[in-house]
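Archive maintenance. Older records in this collection stored only the sequence; we are now back-filling the structure field for every entry so that each record is complete. The fields below show one back-filled record exactly as it appears after the update. Entries are processed alphabetically, and TfoX/Sxy family transcriptional regulator of competence genes is next in the queue.

ARCHIVE ENTRY
Title: TfoX/Sxy family transcriptional regulator of competence genes
Organism field: Mucilaginibacter lappiensis
Length field: 115
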Amino acid sequence: MAYDELLANRVREALSEQDQVDEVKMFQGLCFMVNDKMCVCIRNQDMLCRIGNEQAVVALENDNCRQMVHGSRVMKDFVFVEAENLRSTKDFDHWISLCLQFNKVAKASKKKKNS
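Back-filled structure field:
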């Protein structure tokens, strides 16, 4: 499981004012859950942003991210943003803002029942 610790620290700082933030290792990296909903993940040097399908379509047209594909399934609410598109504070804050905006309306994953 590889992820950029400096990028993870930037995300921690950006989410520090949120009421409930949990860190979970998944997607071969580190995911930040906000209010029990996946919000943003770090994998290698990239940031996986859950921004919703509508915003993802707009972002993909600007060619500064790529769609998340899990196996053969396109994950329409998620885009990967490469490190080069996160270097400036303005760009980084833009992606975090999109993630937090979608987090307000995103549905939480169903909790797994213990058998």
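Update note: The chain has one domain: 5-104. DSSP finds three helices and six strands in the chain.
Entry marked complete.
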